[in-house]
Amino acid sequence: MFKKEWKFNLRHHQIHIVYHYFDGMKLYVDGDLRDFSNISVLFSNDVLLRANLSEIGIIDVTPSWSLLSLEVTVQLSQAADRFIVYSSHGRVPLRAQRLISK
Questions:
Q1: How many domains does the chain have?
Q2: Could you tell me the residue range of the domain that residue 96 belongs to?
Q3: DSSP type of residue 78
Q4: CATH number, domain at 40?
Q5: From CA 29, how far away is CA 7, in angstroms rounded?
Q6: Could you write out the DSSP letters of every residue in 43-56?
Q7: pTM, 2 dp
Q8: What helix, strand, coil percent values describe the chain, rounded to 5?
Q9: What is the DSSP secondary structure assignment for residue 99, as one 8-state letter?
Q10: pLDDT per residue as tens digits for the range 49-101
Q11: Per-residue pLDDT tens for 2-46?
Q12: Which of 44, 75, 81 is closest to 59 using CA atoms?
């Protein structure tokens, strides 16, 4: 059925997000399952998954529908700062690109 995956690196961590219609959404960091949601149909733009990467901050995964496609945006929170580090449908700011490439 409907399955979609997103992968990217954030500093020295490999982030892998998997969505399956029947199993919901899962967040893996370096191959370890860090968070999951059994919600199979997503219609809101709320944070669905979260993982604490202690040395760099907390990442939040927000799914959204774009026409007929499921997309994700991942934001990183560091102290008082919060910015996008990955988006499957939009541009990532230059500051975040520098963080990702370190």
A1: 1
A2: 3-101
A3: E
A4: 2.40.128
A5: 10
A6: -S-S--EEEEETTT
A7: 0.85
A8: 10, 60, 35
A9: H
A10: 999 998 889 999 998 877 778 889 999 998 888 888 888 887 776 766 666 65
A11: 889 999 998 889 999 999 888 889 999 999 999 999 875 556 678
A12: 75
